[in-house]
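As described in the Methods, two query proteins were run sequentially through the folding procedure within a single session, without resetting any intermediate state between them. The first query and its resulting structure tokens are shown here.
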Amino acid sequence: MAVWNHTIVKEFLLVGLTENPNFQIPLFLLFTLIYFITLVGNWGMITLIWLNAHLHTPMYFFLSNLSFCDICFSTVFAPKMLINFLSKHKSTTFSGCLLQSFFFAVYATTEVILLSMMAYDRYVAIAKPLLYTVIMTERVCMQMVLASYSGGLINSLTHTVGLLKLDFCGPNIVNHFFCDIPPLLKLSCSDTHKNEMLLLLFSGVIAVFTFVIIMFSYMRIIIAILRIHSAEGRRKAFSTCASHLTTVTLFYGSGTFSYIQPSSQYSLDQEKVSAVFYTLVIPMLNPLIYSLRNKDVKDAAKMSTCVKRLNTMYGRNNTNVSDFILTGLTDSEEIQLVLFTLFLLIYLVTVLGNAGMMLIIRLDLHLHTPMYFFLSHLSFLDLSYSTVITPKTLENLVTSTKYISYLSCFTQMYFFIFLGTTECLVLSSMAYDRYVAICNPLHYSVVMSKRICCSLISVCYLNGFMDSIINVLCMSSLHFCDSNVIHHFFCDTSPVLALSCSDTKDVEIMIFIFAGSTLMVSILIISLSYLSILSTILKITSTLGRQKAFSTCASHLVGVTIFYGTTMFTYLKPRKSYSLGKDQLASVFYTIVIPMLNPLIYSLRNKEVKSAVIRVIQKRQGSGLLK
């Protein structure tokens, strides 16, 4: 145990790029735009490569992995950086700082090695074109990518373990916008000579090793190009590696400037500028470089656009379906009457419960806190979510003709996806709120300021809007010409897809990517938040203290488990395993039952809400007596 740190520093304060408050909002807007372009560009590149058979080659296999690394690489820094622009207290926990440093090293090293693998791929393609398919087999490509990730993991673990052995007992102000290794080493009160040597050795070895591969590859490429007699042949050969060469120059230039230099010459201000470039700007530029300078990608994008336009035109001109028929949950009239009564009761409880929750939070000043701010939005979403589905379901249970127009069906689908996605992200924001409240109680009011809460809610609604727009646009491009019977009680994506007479593979992949990404990001936030919460609760010595701390997040944990359990059961699975009966049952639960349960869970298990209800009633009774 003597070799591990005995640090008394529990958190670090990140200085950021600037302390001038006048620059905070402009930089927030600029980096939000950069991060948004990064996500859209790289996800777009991955999707395009996945969907287009012409791009199923080793070069684009490496490029899709590079895009994935760029997404992860940028996500390690951008969200925390954007939050700090809007927050006065720019803190990060000790464990959070080490995690950021760990993932930074993983993806940075992986990207460096991937770029060298891509250079070797270009060398084989240009210098040995006849042997290209024999040398660059699928197995070899998989092994090269696996080696890249393994190298990143090993390098990252080495530096993270080295940091864990250091003591941090003095200042905790990191003069950077993220937890990079050099500024952390400056804060340690231990001897950091070994860590600095390890940093220089590993960074140097990886940089030199990959640089040698790249230089060797391009030397052979140049020799091969110079042997080509025609100018057109030379130009065509060079164009296949121009994008990669541009990316390598940008990434290696900024990376080498930051790390391959002695500690005595290290300048934090210079490193900040180069760090912005390789952590945020280059991940945004890579998909642009590979699309604007790459004929294959542009042709694939044009082909996909043309196909979508033709499908849309074909769908608009030849879709024979003007309305759909919803089969509902059952054909039995006796059961329909029972379900009508049950669902009507559930809907009334949902409306009263969620409207009451919003009213109580608004009227009682004691509930004007971040937790109840998020809860009021959750209640609004549950009320809206249920209203999108339940009234039409009730109507169909008492009518013989269960029609819904084409436009109404897609409108219902749009709001269902919009509100469902937003609710997922609001639940993850609430988990983060509970993490701050339990793990950093002294900084809670500073970290979860009104501006931060409004920003988090805005991001949730914006993502919900984008997800629903993309899904509905993809669905609207399909052709419906035969059956119009939807085997469900509302217009969900899976049963509507089953009716299309177009090829739905591309649409299914797009929906799976966006639904999966939203679920995985929100689940990751919730999991990390609750792991930190659990770790903090276990450190509390008294049983009463543990019970009190856990009670503040018990309601949220119950709500999350029910909502995510049914949602993941329904959507995160291949279409071939789709089961109508099981999915309908799960759908009833998360569209009708859960919106009713949430206000009950948060009121029956919450002392503050019950006390607020009593205060509001007493206040109203007092006002009545005065009159």
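Immediately afterward, the second query was submitted; its sequence and tokens are:
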Amino acid sequence: MAGQLLTAGLFAMTGAVAQAASPYDYIIVGSGPGGSPLAANLARAGYATLLLEAGDDLGNNKNYSEMINFNLAANDEKSRWDFFVKHSSDAEREAKYEHTTWRKPDGSFYVGLDPPEGSERLGIYYPRSATLGGCAMHNGGVCNLPSDDDWNAIAESTGDDTWLAKNMRQYFERIETAQYLPAGTPGHGYSGYLNVTISDPGFMQRSSDVQQIASSIISVVGGGVTRDINAPDPDRDNSTGVFGLASHADLNGHRVGTNTYIWSTLDDPAKYPLTVQLQSLVTKILFAEDADEPTAIGVEVLRGQSLYKADPRYNGTKGEVEQVYANKEVIIAGGAFNSPQILKLSGIGPAGELKKFDIPIIKDLPGVGEKLADNYEGGVLVLANKPLNGSSGPFAVLLKTPTARKNRNIYGWCKSFSFEGFWPGFPTEYGPSEYECAFVHMNPRSQAGYIRLKSNDPQEPPEINFNFFEHGEDEDLTEMLDAAKIFRKAITAAGEPIGPFNEKHPCPGVNQNCTDAAQKEFLKLQTYSHHATSTCGIGPAEEQLAVLDSKFRVHGVKNLRVVDASAFPFVPGAFPVCPVFMLAEKATDEILKDAKASPA
């Protein structure tokens, strides 16, 4: 079967097809950094693979193909799925989030704390990307590997040493084409599908305001803008200071990864057996009726454009129903919000929740949708005393604050820009004097969020509550505050005439003396995030909330795996996209190993 990409309008409705007649060995649901590489790899190994994506292909749209346009991509209704989440169950605390989104009576959005009369509170905006390539098509592209301890913890909990950091590095080397290092630099790859570059460091050789601020930051924290952030150094997880910010883009700034790898597979003269079907919203997994234990055999799909209610273009269309079958396995890769939703709608999840919505129970797995995790994000945003001259891409800053538990705990990125989280129409631009060091607080102590069904309607988004700061609040806020103090000191070291700086947050004003308590309160109330993970986490079967084994197989269900960010038992480092690319490679090895052991 030659590679092919189809949209919903090209399908013939076939009804229930006998499993034995299926043209597909594997069905993969979702085309993000888990699903797309896995589908391409299985097809390249000779297995007929069907990749299902609810959105369209926007790979030739410059909002997506050019990494610099990621804000435009995340705001584009052609791909957006608009989720609205909670940060806690405390209504009073939620009411203080400054970028709360409301639906006005005329149907448009209002963002803020004083909505027009009659507006409906939607919550905290958390956009996801429904397009061929998933969220790797609207993200900032940061490619940062987690600490060795993050990988080793999975090995320790499962007893599977293939997860040890020393064994996981091979997957990064397999996928990478490093374009910012001399060929042969240890720990990197040079022939993979994933180009990795850093922001042009040339701005440091030209005198300018942004160069002076960067030099000031380096003078305070150390390092340099060409340091290799993904180097396999023995002390890497405690190395701090300025680094080059690595991203999955080529030297021309073109986004690479999910979409480009799918298309290179479809266009290859070898005619790999890959089929991509767009505008295909999976509603549930199908199971064999005569099996001794639950066995996945296919999926039910709604065909049509903008069928999910999170899509801003949704107009009430129900779509056409079709069932598609797999000879070998079904792999769910819908992401941390949608993978648990699909499992629950299929009868896999907490029995009490499934009964509430009259969903027949296939497997009682209490952990499905639980342990939702994300890093906390904040930043020190200032306005200089003059318009800033010069320009640069972002550079990375890694910190280990005084109370960090073991490894460095802060990933920052600095440049002349403004980023304060997500809301419809973000960001707020403050003009040519703006400068920010935004940051991610890694490995938060609390992981108490959840994804729960609102109904048994597969077109309705689930309820999402991150339950931030449920545990370890003061410890995590202290680390965030210490990071803010370091970034403030580093930026303001630039001095006059660039300064004095008028800080927007977390300590507003010029040379203000804010209390620690006030800054912590701001950081707690205005924390944002966009790297959800862990709602179908890997863990041993005896662990109550574990959903997957170390081979990505759903506990107690045959021929069903989950391969995406939801599989991580906790957030892997600062940014999960490259770790998820690595998951896809590991899953490829596990699936092909099983296929060779059971060729029938």
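Residues 307 and 317 are 6 Å apart (CA to CA). We note this only descriptively and draw no conclusion about the first query from it.
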